[in-house]
Design brief:
With 69 residues, this protein is α+β, with helices and mostly antiparallel strands. A hairpin with a 6-residue loop joins strand 1 and strand 2.
């Protein structure tokens, strides 16, 4: 059984959530060694992906822009 913090490299996959219930960004690990995760939930489906800290920063900036429109 894989644990959430075990990062697995897979081919690029696109998952579309038309009516997402929630998006959550979280971390696992100590500062400087953290792994960032994005979790999305919609209609009984749940996906979690690992990504880099800079990607989390860009995502937060873009969400802020969208909310201000």
């Amino acid at each position: 059984m894989k644990r959430l913090w075990e990062v697995e490299r897979v081919a690029r996959r696109i998952i579309e959530y038309r009516l997402p219930e929630r998006f959550i960004v979280g971390t696992v690990g100590m500062p400087g060694e953290r792994t960032f995760y994005l979790q999305a939930k919609s209609a009984g489906s749940l996906s979690a992906v690992a990504f880099e800290k800079q990607q989390a920063v860009v995502l937060a900036e873009r969400i802020d822009e969208l909310l201000n429109e």
